[in-house]
Design goal:
The chain is mainly alpha-helical and 160 residues long. It contains six helices and no strands. Helix 1 packs across helix 4 and helix 1 packs antiparallel against helix 6 (117-142). The longest helix has 32 residues, at 2-33. 29% of the residues are buried.
Length: 160
Amino acid sequence: MYVLKRLLLTVVAYVVAVLTGLVSIVILYVVLSSLPGAPGYFSTMSLSPLVVLVVPPAGLLALAIVVILTYLPALAAALISEIFSLRQIWLHGLFGAAIGAGAFIYASPELVGSISGTDWADLAIVAVGGLAGGISYWLIAGRKAGFARPALSPLPDVLA
């Protein structure tokens, strides 16, 4: 029953992490579009929440694309953290950033071999979104990662 609970918690944490990553990417585009010299499409990307509210199928399509691009690497990272009981916040953030950056590179095949200045900015924005997703995953499921229950110690926590 404990393993089933961990698996369910992992799925819920993944969904929340994806949503957190998408929201943080939009926030980053909104903030960066106000900087002088920002590319024009940054302000267009900041309109995506409005598009999602007006045309919900567009939001569901974006969510489906993100899930398709990230579910296998996220499953691998979740299994590694559960098997080895990896509970460090920085590790989950690193996993999230790597998954986000990898999904962006995979979805943009023209980036392989030549990356321009705005491509680096987009890659960094998506990686930071993945970092935020990894941290939100850690908050829900990563802090107590591990399929095996911790052994009960006869000593109080202070002495153990």
